[in-house]
Each structure stands twice: as C-alpha cells, then as structure tokens.
Amino acid sequence: MNSLERVIATVNFKAPDRVPVIAQVFGHAAVFSGVPLDTYLQDGEILARCQLQALDKYGYDAVFTVVDVNIETEALGSIIDYRKNQYAVIKKYALSDDYDIDQLSVPDCKKAGRMPEILKALSILKKALNDEVLIVGCVLGPLTLTTQLLGMEKALYLAIDEPERFEKLLDFSCKVLIQFGLAQISAGAHVPIVFDPSASPAVVPYQFFREFEAPRLKKIFQSFKTNGAIANWLHIAGPSDKILPYYSDIGVDIANFDYCVNAQVAMSTLPHTCLDGNIKPLAFVENNENDIMSASEQLLNMFSKRGGFILSSGCEIPPESKPQNIAAMVKSTRFN
Amino acid sequence: MSGNLIGDNMHQQKINALITYLLEGNNQQAVASAKELHNEGITKEQIITQSLEETMIQLGAKCTVEQFNLLEIMLAGRAVMAVMKCLYPDGTFPEKTKETVVVAALEGDVHDLGKNILKMVLMAKGYRVVDCGKDCPIQRLVDTAKEQSPFVIGISGLISSIIPLVKKVRGALNSQGLDHIKVMAGGAALKQSLKEQLNVDYIAESAFDGVHYIEKMRLINE
C-alpha cells in the first residue's frame, strides 16, 4: 500500500498494511530545511519544497499546506505582521466595529493575499506526489474565521449581543471557506482539513458549538465531499469530549483529538469514525525518543483491535521540536 | 430597628439580584442594579465586596478544570467591568485594594484572551492589576515589576515558541533582586509543561486555578 491507500483504508475501517502515521508538521518543515519561518509562510514554492524534504526525511503518510490561521482573514483585508522566524500575527483585524455585512464579498482565491501561494504549493505537491501520499490543504472553521475577522472577544460578544448579525457573519465565513476549500481540491488537495480552534469547548460551550457551528461545518463538509475530497477531517484542539457526539452528523470522517482527551472516550463516542491523535505536542520539544516511542506504542495497542486510527500528535508538532522525536513516532508504526 | 432590618433585607435581595445579573453576564441590568444600590446608600466598596467578589467566588466554584467555560467568564467579566466603570467612571479604582499582580503575554505571543480573563477576575476580587499587555519583552516585564512591586507575575502563553522566554523570566527577576516575586504561568502551550521545565513557581490549569494560587500566596505572605 502507498500512503494514500493506507489512509483511505484506515478511514474506511479496512485493514491497512500498517497503521498510518501523520505528523502534524507545519512550521517545523521550515525549521528542518533551514528556511526562515516567515519565508515559508509566504512562498508556496518554498512551502512545498520544505514539506517534500521533511516527508523524505521522516517517511510519514501526509504532507500539509497549513501555514497559519490568517490566510482567509488576510485575503479579506486583515493586516498581517510577518516576523522573522515566527508565525504571522494579525496587526489589524479586517472588520471594524461598524462593518457592513452586505459590503463584504468573497475573495478571489487566485488573487487574494496568500491564497494563490497555498494553491501553488498544492499544485507542486500534487505534481511531485500524485496519489502516493495524502495531500492535506486547510481552511478554518466558520467560527474561527469570524474570530479572526473581528478579534476573539468582539466576535464572542457579538454572538451574545447581536446573534442575528453574528450568524450572518458566520454564513459569510462559510461561503469564503467553501470557495477556498474547493479551490484547494482543484489544485491538488485530497482533503482540506478544517481547523477550528475557536470552536473548542475551551473557548465556547458545547451548546454554542451545536447551535452555531455544527450546521455550518456540515454544509462545508458536504460541499467538499461532493466536489472530490476523499474524506472530511475536523481538527478542534483542546478538551473536545463534549462536542465529539456531534461529529458523525456533521459528516466527519477523521476526527483529530488532542492530548487532553481520553482515547477510550473518543473511541466509545465515535465508534465508526477514524480518529487521529493524540500525543502531547510539547512532548516533541521537551521529551525524548523513548518517551515518544512509549506513548506511540500505548496508542497503537489501544487501537489495535478497533482500527480506524491514525497515529499523530494532538495538535501541531511545534516548529522547534526535536527531529529524533518525530522520527520515533514514525518508527513506532513500523514495529507494530 | 425593624425598619433597618427590612431595609437590610431589601438590600440583600438587591445584592443577590446583582450577583445573578453578573453571573448571567447581563451587563445592562447589572449596571442599573449597582446604580440603584449606590443611590440607596450602599457604598462602592460594599458593592464590590458583597457582589463583585461574591460573583467571582461563585463563578470560580462553577468553573472547575473539567467545566471551564470561557464564554461564561468573559460575559460575567464584562458585566463586572461595566459595574466597576459605573462606580468609578474616571478609572481610578478603589485605593484600598489587595496586593499587586502584574500580568503579561510575552514577546511573540499576541493572544491575550487568557491574560485578560485573569486580569478581570483578579480585579473583581479586589487586586490591583498592572497589565503589561501582549507581545511584552522581558525587560519591560522586569522594569514593571521593579516599579510596581507585585507579589505575583502571571504569564499567559498560547504558543510553544515563547517557552524559551518564559524560562528566562525567573533569572531576569533574580538579577534585579526580585527573587521574592512568584512567577505563575498558564495558557494552552505553557500548561503542557512542568513548572521545573519552565522555571516558574506554578502552572495554572485555568484562570481560576491561577487565582486560587494567588490567594494562597497572599495568605502565606500575611
């Protein structure tokens, strides 16, 4: 089996030749290749090259075009601060207090901000890997994009003070994300992963997720599937236990679970959904190979009978992680 | 005598109502209720100690690590701040406060929601909070600590790349003779680590856990 076949078999609860391992290597690919992180974030060609070099070194089963959480908001007018060797941050949010929702328009993915660079990276990866390795694009979840357009506090207060206006903004975000996701599929992504950190129960109550976010995620995933995504992958970090029960209805095929979620709970809540996780991300920086190997083996044993499991970290593997720790996680799947 | 008793009872009911508005995050009703109490002769200090502080105690009891609800805290915090602004419109908060706490998100980290929540809870509990803001260089943090004499510094961190900076805070404080100041860390990235690794005195699981630690340290200092 090649990597893509291995992942597809696992998502469908069929027996793969071995458990797939997907290291959530984003900025670490730049560090590994000796490229300044800020350059990596802005240049699709460099991004693709670094991802291919990291893939070649570690031998895991997927590559990513995830850079930071500001792609969509930048395309919509947020001003971004690029700092040497750091992730980009928002200097000025796209929407001011008196924004007019009716004046907002969905950006052209071929022109707006760094969107074309992401599409370029996907095309290069597709050309290099074809259908051998899973190519993962990325869009934000609608709530996360909304918080990135207004600022977290303003967006959440808006949800309470003016729910109708807030929902309109969520719907607009949804349109942006669907268009960007479909452009990524056309450019070569097998899956646009949906990153939705603001929808974590660490931020909003699960009822909020159920009412505001779940229906919109469902719409996004339906659109991706209809247009060629091989699976729907949802990534919500933090203590997601209370929102996991909604994942099946949303149409999630791969559910990321963070280190603070009990694997048994995730398994019993989502018996028919492929899970990926959940080694503590900071362990790749602070711990050693033996620790990572041991955590990996523990997870592989827990999921050995069930299947439907991709070995991974709970969230992004920090850029400054020790390469030998990532290698140890990958190696553990070769022994089982 | 009986009139006083009835009056006190009425005020207690109004204070209870204010606490409910604050817990619900109903800032407009909370402000109206606080104004009414103040007009009826309840002092600003009484409103703070009997309603604002009590709100934070009740919210803290609800928000265990397992049931942490950031949105609920934000809404209650916003209502508390609205009442504080109503009581002290010129921004000069009561002089008689508890000790000083300095809060910051270090250079490279622009996520300040966690820090803001901690600040709101501490202020509502009567602490004097000096906010170094987000993206704060260590030198500014140390200078602020020298000027403001806090007994605890709270550092919030959402991203792992600030860990090397967090590790340096203790040394930077000690080099200025500020060994007595406790350093507390919290936030998604920092709470994955150990206090020994970060070279801090405590790692808070949540804003309220951090407040409990600060309260504990205050009692030890007394």
Structural commentary:
The complex is a heterodimer of chains A (336) and B (222). Chain A is α/β, with parallel strands linked by helices and 336 residues long. Chain A has helices spanning 3-11, 27-33, 37-42, 44-58, 71-75, 115-129, 142-150, 152-161, 163-187, 206-226, 247-250, 263-269, 283-286, 289-303, 323-335; strands at residues 21-22, 62-64, 79-81, 89-92, 134-140, 191-195, 233-235, 254-257, 274-279, 309-313. In chain A, strands 1-10-9-8-7-6-5-2 form an eight-stranded parallel β-sheet, sandwiched between helices. In chain A, strands 3-4 form a two-stranded antiparallel ribbon. In chain A, helix 12 links the parallel strand 8 (254-257) and strand 9. Chain A is globular, with a radius of gyration of 19 Å. The two termini of chain A are 16 Å apart. In chain B, helix 1 packs across helix 3 (44-62) and helix 6 packs parallel to helix 7. Chain B has two domains: 2-87, Orthogonal Bundle (Methyltransferase, Methionine Synthase (B12-binding Domains), Chain A, domain 1); 100-221, 3-Layer(aba) Sandwich (Rossmann fold). Chain B has 222 residues and is an alpha/beta fold. In chain B, strand 3, helix 7 (163-174) and strand 4 form a beta-alpha-beta unit. A five-stranded parallel β-sheet of chain B has the order 2-1-3-4-5, with helices on both faces. Chain B has nine helices and five strands; from the N terminus they run H-H-H-H-E-H-E-H-E-H-E-H-E-H. The chains are: A alpha/beta (336), B alpha/beta (222). The interface between A and B is medium-sized, with 28 and 23 residues.
Low-confidence stretches of chain A: none
Main sheet record of chain A: 8 strands, parallel
Count of individual helical segments of chain A: 15
The span between the termini of chain A is: 16 Å
Quantity of strands of chain A, as a count: 10
Number of strands of chain B: 5
Oligomeric composition of the shown chains:
heterodimer
- Name of the level-1 CATH class of chain A: Alpha Beta
CATH superfamily of the largest domain in chain B: Cobalamin-binding domain
Q: Indicate the CATH topology of the largest domain in chain B.
A: Rossmann fold
Judging from the principal axes of the Cα atoms, what is the shape of chain B? elongated
State Rg of chain B.
19 Å
Fraction of residues in H or I helices of chain B: 55-70%
CATH architecture grouping of the largest domain in chain B: 3-Layer(aba) Sandwich
